[in-house]
C-alpha cells in the first residue's frame, strides 16, 4: 500500500503529532508498505519520502513552519500524490496542510483517513495572539476551503460554552465529517467528538512507539529509590498554558525532598523561569527543547513522570514513552486515567498544585510504591508498541478504501 501522511507539523520540530507520524511510518514500512510525509518544512528534507509543502517565509507560529498558500499547497499535493501513486491519504492536523490534503485527495478520488490528535479549541485559546479575533479568522479561512455545514455544536457542554470554543469545535467536527474514516487515540476525546456531531465511521485506536524507540529504551528494571535519595521527577511537554507547567513548579515548591527536570520549550518559558526563581539551586532544571533521545535519557534517570495538563490532552506520547521506560506516571486529568496501566500510575485527588504536591509527598515517603508502580508499567510495555496497533491501523485504511469504491 502507498500511503501519504499529511501534516502541519513534522520533524525536526518536536511534539506528539510528529512522534506519532514517525512511529506510524516506521511500523508500516517494516510491514512492506511505502509511506510519504507531506509537510511544511523550514528547508527541504534529505529524505526522499519527506516532501516539503509550500512554506511561509519569516512566519512560524509557536516555532512551527507554516503552510502557505493553501492553494499552492493543494496544487503541490495533487501533483505529489498523483506522481507517487498514493492510495490512502492520512491527515493528522487541522490547519492549511490538512486542508490542502483534503482538497487534493478529493480531486484525485483518494480516500481520506483523519486522526484527531487533540483539542485545538484549547490550543488556539492558549497560544494564538488575541484568540477572540484570530480564531474567527482561522475558522473563516478553514470554512472557505472545507464546508462547516455538517457541524451542529452542542453549546450546553461546558467545554463548548463560549463562541470561541464553538468555532473551533465546528472546525474539528466539520473536518472529521469530511473524511472517510476517523481515528481517535482515546475514548474520552472520541466521546466528545461524537457528542458534538461527528458521524463519520470512527475507530478508537491507541498511538504507539516505534521499535527503534523501544530498542533505545532497552529492557528497564523496576525503579528503586535508594535510602536517603531525593525523589527524581520529570516533566515533558510544550511550555504552554494549556500544559499548565506552572502548576508543576508550584507543586514542586510544596514538596521538599523532590528534585525535577523539565523538557520542552514554548511561549510559557519565561513564566516558568519566573515561577521557579525562588526554588533552591538544583531543585529544578529546565532543559528546553531537546531531541527525543535526550528525553528518554532523562526518563531513565527519573523515578516518576508528571503530566499537569487538564481538559486538553488526548493521549500524550510522553506518557507512552514513560510506560515503555518503566516509569510510573502521575496525571492531574482524570480523562488520562484510561492510558495508565493498572497499578502503574495515579491520578491526583485534585488537579491543582496542592493535589499534585500531596501525591509527590506520598511517593517520596513510601518509595516501595515507586517500585511496584514501575513493575506494573514494565508489564504493560508491549501495549505501547506501535507494532501492536499496526494491523488495526491497516484495517482502518482497508475500510476507507472499501467505502470509497
From TrEMBL:
InterPro entries: Glyco_trans_4-like_N, Glycosyltransferase_grp1. The keyword Transferase applies. Keywords: Glycosyltransferase, Transferase. The keyword Glycosyltransferase applies. Residues 15-210 form the Glycosyltransferase subfamily 4-like N-terminal domain. It holds the Pfam family Glyco_trans_1_4. PANTHER family: SULFOQUINOVOSYL TRANSFERASE SQD2. This is D-inositol 3-phosphate glycosyltransferase. It comes from Microbacterium phyllosphaerae. The lineage of its organism: Bacteria, Bacillati, Actinomycetota, Actinomycetes, Micrococcales.
Amino acid at each position: 500500500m502507498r500511503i501519504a501522511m499529511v501534516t502541519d507539523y513534522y520533524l525536526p520540530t518536536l511534539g506528539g503529532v510528529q512522534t506519532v507520524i514517525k512511529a506510524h511510518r516506521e511500523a508500516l514500512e517494516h510491514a512492506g508498505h511505502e509511506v510519504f510525509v507531506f509537510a511544511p518544512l523550514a528547508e527541504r528534507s534529505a529524505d526522499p519520502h519527506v516532501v516539503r509543502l509550500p512554506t511561509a517565509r519569516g512566519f512560524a507560529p509557536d516555532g512551527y513552519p507554516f503552510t502557505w498558500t493553501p492553494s499552492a499547497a493543494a496544487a503541490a499535493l495533487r501533483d505529489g500524490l498523483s506522481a507517487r501513486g498514493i492510495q490512502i491519504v492520512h491527515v493528522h492536523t487541522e490547519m492549511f496542510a490538512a486542508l490542502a490534503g483534503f482538497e487534493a485527495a478529493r480531486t484525485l478520488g483518494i480516500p481520506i483517513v483523519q486522526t484527531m490528535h487533540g483539542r485545538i479549541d484549547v490550543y488556539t485559546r492558549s497560544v494564538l495572539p488575541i484568540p477572540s479575533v484570530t480564531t474567527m479568522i482561522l475558522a473563516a479561512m478553514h470554512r472557505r476551503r472545507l464546508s462547516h455545514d455538517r457541524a451542529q455544536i452542542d453549546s450546553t457542554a461546558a467545554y463548548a460554552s463560549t463562541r470561541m470554543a464553538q468555532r473551533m469545535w465546528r472546525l474539528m467536527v466539520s473536518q472529521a465529517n469530511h473524511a472517510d474514516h476517523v481515528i481517535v487515540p482515546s475514548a474520552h476525546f472520541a466521546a466528545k467528538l461524537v457528542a458534538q456531531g461527528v458521524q463519520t465511521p470512527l475507530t478508537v485506536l491507541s498511538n504507539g512507539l516505534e521499535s527503534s524507540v523501544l530498542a533505545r529504551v532497552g529492557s528497564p528494571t523496576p525503579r528503586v529509590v535508594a535510602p536517603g535519595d531525593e525523589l527524581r521527577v520529570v516533566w515533558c511537554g510544550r511550555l504552554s498554558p494549556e500544559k499548565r507547567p506552572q502548576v508543576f513548579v508550584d507543586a514542586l515548591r510544596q514538596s521538599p525532598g523532590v528534585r525535577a527536570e523539565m523538557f520542552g520549550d514554548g511561549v510559557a518559558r519565561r513564566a516558568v523561569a519566573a515561577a521557579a526563581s525562588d526554588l533552591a539551586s538544583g531543585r529544578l532544571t529546565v532543559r528546553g527543547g531537546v531531541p527525543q533521545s535526550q528525553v528518554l535519557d532523562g526518563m531513565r534517570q527519573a523515578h516518576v513522570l508528571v503530566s499537569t495538563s487538564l481538559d486538553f490532552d488526548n493521549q500524550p506520547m510522553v506518557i507512552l514513552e514513560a510506560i515503555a521506560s518503566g516509569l510510573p506516571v502521575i496525571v492531574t486529568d482524570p480523562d488520562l486515567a484510561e492510558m495508565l496501566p493498572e497499578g502503574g500510575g495515579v491520578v491526583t485527588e485534585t488537579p491543582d498544585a496542592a493535589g499534585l504536591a500531596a501525591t509527590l509527598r506520598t511517593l517520596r515517603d513510601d518509595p516501595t510504591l515507586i517500585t511496584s508502580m514501575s513493575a506494573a508499567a514494565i508489564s504493560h510495555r508491549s501495549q505501547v508498541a506501535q507494532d501492536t496497533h499496526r494491523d488495526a491501523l491497516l484495517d482502518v485504511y482497508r475500510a476507507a478504501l472499501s467505502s470509497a469504491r
